[in-house]
Amino acid sequence: xxxxxxxxxxxxxxxxxxxxxxxxxxxxxxxxxxxxxxxxxxxxxxxxxxxxxxxxxxxxxxxxxxxxxxxxxxxxxxxxxxxxxxxxxxxxxxxxxxxxxxxxxxxxxxxxxxxxxxxxxxxxxxxxxxxxxxxxxxxxxxxxxxxxxxxxxxxxxxxxxxxxxxxxxxxxxxxxxxxxxxxxxxxxxxxxxxxxxxxxxxxxxxxxxxxxxxxxxxxxxxxxxxxxxxxxxxxxxxxxxxxxxxxxxxxxxxxxxxxxxxxxxxxxxxxxxxxxxxxxxxxxxxxxxxxxxxxxxxxxxxxxxxxxxxxxxxxxxxxxxxxxxxxxxxxxxxxxxxxxxxxxxxxxxxxxxxxxxxxxxxxxxxxxxxxxxxxxxxxxxxxxxxxxxxxxxxxxxxxxxxxxxxxxxxxxxxxxxxxxxxxxxxxx
Length: 428
What we know:
Elements: H1 2-16, H2 19-40, E1 43-51, E2 60-67, H3 68-82, H4 89-107, H5 112-122, H6 126-136, H7 142-147, H8 156-173, H9 178-189, H10 201-207, H11 212-226, H12 228-236, H13 240-244, H14 252-284, H15 306-334, H16 338-354, H17 362-368, H18 372-375, H19 378-382, E3 388-390, E4 393-395, H20 397-422
Antiparallel strand pairs: 1-2, 3-4
Helix pairs in contact: 1-14, 2-11, 2-14, 4-5, 10-14, 10-15, 11-14, 11-15, 11-16, 12-15, 12-16, 14-15, 15-16, 15-20
């Protein structure tokens, strides 16, 4: 055991003492911070009316300006105002009356500052509008149906009936089997209705492609640069002949290198996740851990909160990083080149990010969604309603993925061990 600790300490020291390791971490963190800063300071123009040319050759626009940060601050305040309310007839009536009253006030004032004030008052209903659209699956349709005329106003009964129809339509698009449909019907019964509205923009950001997905993407690039050198460096520096004929060169050293690469993957992913979570929650707030996923994906029937989904995603992200690290190390050992491991890893991540296989090709698209970069897309992989049956036990894609990743990791370790042990140094 002492020998393992000594070798592991030496391998970790080699990784941490490379300039490329810290430069890559710094570049990725800086790129994320810059992108957030640019987005947060983006300005928006609210134009009420355009004035005619006053002889200068330019038109003057009458309105006001604000930034993304200011909009989000108001949105957070408005969201917290409505948090805790049941999405029922009482809430829908409050929305209807409040929207109509504010619209009437805007129509009776001519002062721009008053119009600006009442226009911002209307923002109080925007979060609820998008939530109702998400529940009913009718983006951009509901406002006309319940704001314009009271006779066609949305009611609790209409809202949840529409949601039931959307759930059936969504599941039908996946061509689920009878057993799968029965599984989701049972899950649907376990949902508590009416849903409770909660502001949870920080958690929405973290489970979107701006959060955990970004952590996985950055971690993959970091691992491609760093762990691809763990095995390949021996061959590139022509130290393999000395190492492989040493006492621990073919047995203990292999597993030590695998553990070192895996430990670095764990720490690198943790660092990236910590940075992304800290920035996201500072910007968007930490409210809403217990907000149900149906507030943004009404067609999903599993009883999960966005906080639970975030924890599950972080776990999958860490396990997938370990698998990615092992994959890169085995590839770089097979081809005796760090560049090979780096290129294959980047191409795999790029392909998974760009290519989408239609759900009509059930088996192929389901397998494709198990790739970490697809699984961590909340709308593509994570909420895929197709199930995996193992010895009669039905599991969702996010339940089965960690098991699959661990099995694939063990297989890759054994294949890499075979390749490493049988390698013979040839004349150069």
